[in-house]
Every structure is written in structure tokens, then in C-alpha cells.
Design a protein that fits this description.
single chain; alpha/beta; Quinone Oxidoreductase, Chain A, domain 1; 7-stranded mixed β-sheet; 6-stranded parallel β-sheet; 15 strands; alcohol dehydrogenase (NAD+) activity; GroES-like_sf; metal-binding; metal ion binding
Length: 342
């Protein structure tokens, strides 16, 4: 099979087209022929090297996977799936036996596995995954639309659900123009809530339905929060990391801050602990999203006729250029990479 991978950590130029033997599924596994993947910040983080999680070289990144079930391992029970089915692959699966996995919370599993991170992912033509990670693809969404859902849209949906976002709520989205930020804006508006988006691309976020847009100036943000809300936003969602103090300042008493991801310069953030206990603030940390959240967001989007925001469709061979663009903050929304090699 062909794949875009790397055999050492480094800049985008370490990515190159490679050829490998086709993967063979073990019992309980299938091989998926990948039609498309999408660009995610985690792809670049893994390429550069993630502290504490070693990568065995060569490595094939790609957290998002949509494709056809090509083959199954010996004695594998496919359940409701069949060879040839169009499927998505969940962006996380667990050991299957711990108390979290038994409760359908595999994103909490201490031994969680993520495609493109711990194991090879969607930058390859073929990928080997457990049957338990498969999700049936709806006919109402195109291949390109499906390719952006497993990570950005499922984890955004999880953030909104754990914060109990509902109609009329004010939601602060920090990092509005990226894949997560645009997903959060689209889904929040579909839930009937209102959005204050912190972004460097105000016109884009306005076009996606954001009620208020603002740059990263703290004083201007607080002015707009005070003008538009009754004592602060109900929910603040921060996927950047070093903007957490802005989220805590903007939240109303009793509000909820959801934090996930580190896209800023450092994972270390200094905050005043009094902002939690004196204002009854809830802080929830999340990462990835279980298969249940992926199924939920698919059903929600199909029922509401919601389409994800895709700014560009490219090929997986263009990954080095796209990684460079992403790391220079030149990517907005989601970028799809098709497996078109000729």
C-alpha cells in the first residue's frame, strides 16, 4: 500500500510518500480502504514528537478515517457490518475490559488508542482497526463531509454535551477559525445557543452564525461579554490552552469552562484559583470522544441538515504543504485529503 508517513520527527518536510506491505487483520480486526482523511493539529504534534508517547518508526499519521471495509481477520464477528460497507473509524478505542470501556466510555480508558497517534492512521491507503471502532456512515453526507467528523466534530459535540449547552445559552469559543472552532460555532448555533467567537477571522465566523466576534484582546473581549450577557457567558470552551485565563474571566458565576488541547506556546498556564471557588466555576477537561459521541453528532447533523465547514479539498500527497500551512496558521475550518494518487 501507499501512504504518507515519516521515519523521524521534524518539520513538515519529513513527510513523504512510502510503500508498505498491505496490513493483515488479526481476529477482531478489519482492514479499511481509506477514501479520505482530514488535516488535524494532532497530526503535526505527532510528527514533531509528543512527550511521553513514543512513536515507532516509520509512522503513518491521520486521526480521521472514512472508507470501505475491505477484509476481516480470521473468525472476526462483524456484527452489523459487512465487507464493502462505508464506515467511519472512531478517533479513540479502549481496552474493552476496564470499567470505563464496559460503560461505553472508552475515551476514559487508561489504555486508550488513537489512530494516527498510537497506531497507523488515515494517511495510508489501508488501515487496520478493531471492529469495535467502526461506525456506519450515513448516506446523507458526502465522503468529504464524513472525513472531517471523527475528531473535530465528535470532540466539539462532546464539549457541548458535557457542558449541557442549551437554547439561549451564551457560549464563548476560543480559537474560532480552526477545525474545532468552526465545528463548535456550527453545532452551538444548531442547539439554539449564542456564540461569542474569539478569532482572527471575524467575517468567516460571522458567516457561520457567530453572534459576536472579537480578537484576542482581553479588554475588548470583556467589554463585549459585559455588553451582551447577563454577568458573563454560560459556557467557555478553550481548545488552545494559554487562553484559559480569558475563559475564566469571561465566565458567569456558576458557569462551565471546558478545556482540551494545547495549541499555544506552553501547556503550563497560571490562573487565580479564587476564580473557581469564589465564582462556583466548573472546569471540565476532555480529550477525544467515545464512539457514542460520534454517533450522536452524526445523527444530530443529519436530522438538522447541518453540513461541516470545509475550506479545501486536497490529496494526501499534499500533506507536507498542508502541514506547513497549518503550522503557520494558514488553515481555516477543515481541510480534506483524498486518497487520489494518480
Amino acid at each position: 500500500m501507499r501512504a504518507v508517513g515519516f521515519d523521524r520527527h521534524g518539520d513538515p518536510n519529513v513527510l513523504r510518500v512510502m510503500e508498505f506491505p498491505d496490513p493483515r487483520p488479526s481476529p477482531g480486526e478489519v482492514v479499511v480502504r481509506v477514501l479520505a482523511t482530514s488535516l488535524n493539529r494532532i497530526d503535526a504534534i505527532v510528527r514533531r514528537g509528543y512527550p511521553g508517547i513514543p512513536v515507532k518508526f516509520p509512522h503513518v499519521p491521520g486521526a480521521d478515517i472514512v472508507g470501505y471495509v475491505e477484509s476481516a481477520g480470521p473468525g472476526t464477528d462483524l456484527g452489523d457490518f459487512r465487507i464493502g460497507d462505508l464506515v467511519l473509524v472512531s478517533n479513540v478505542w479502549g481496552c474493552g475490559s476496564c470499567r470505563f470501556c464496559r460503560a461505553g466510555m472508552e475515551d476514559h480508558c487508561p489504555s486508550w488508542t488513537m489512530p494516527g497517534f498510537h497506531v497507523w492512521g488515515g494517511y495510508g491507503e489501508l488501515v487496520r482497526v478493531p471492529v469495535k471502532a467502526l461506525v456506519k456512515a450515513p448516506r446523507e453526507l458526502s465522503i468529504n463531509e464524513l472525513a472531517v467528523l471523527p475528531l473535530a466534530y465528535s470532540v466539539s459535540w462532546k464539549a457541548l454535551r458535557v457542558a449541557n449547552v442549551g437554547p439561549g445559552d451564551w457560549v464563548l469559543v476560543l480559537g474560532g477559525s480552526g477545525g474545532i472552532g468552526t465545528a463548535l460555532t456550527i453545532l452551538t448555533k444548531a442547539l439554539g445557543a449564542r456564540v461569542i467567537a474569539v478569532t482572527t477571522r471575524p467575517s468567516l465566523l460571522k458567516s457561520l452564525g457567530a453572534d459576536v466576534v472579537v480578537g484576542y484582546d482581553r479588554e475588548e473581549l470583556m467589554r463585549l461579554v459585559n455588553e451582551n450577557t447577563d454577568g458573563g457567558v454560560d459556557v467557555a470552551i478553550d481548545s488552545i490552552g494559554d487562553t484559559l485565563p480569558m475563559a475564566l474571566e469571561a465566565i458567569r458565576p456558576g458557569g462551565t469552562v471546558v478545556a482540551f488541547g494545547v495549541l499555544g506556546k506552553s501547556p503550563i498556564v497560571q490562573v487565580d484559583i479564587r476564580r473557581f471557588y469564589l465564582r462556583h466555576t466548573r472546569l471540565i477537561g476532555i480529550h477525544n470522544a467515545s464512539k457514542a459521541y460520534l454517533r450522536e453528532v452524526i445523527d444530530f447533523m443529519v436530522s438538522k441538515g447541518i453540513k461541516p465547514f470545509i475550506s479545501r479539498v486536497a490529496t494526501v500527497k499534499e500533506a507536507p504543504t498542508l502541514h506547513e500551512l497549518m503550522e503557520s496558521r494558514g488553515v481555516v475550518g477543515k481541510v480534506v485529503m483524498r486518497h487520489e494518487w494518480d
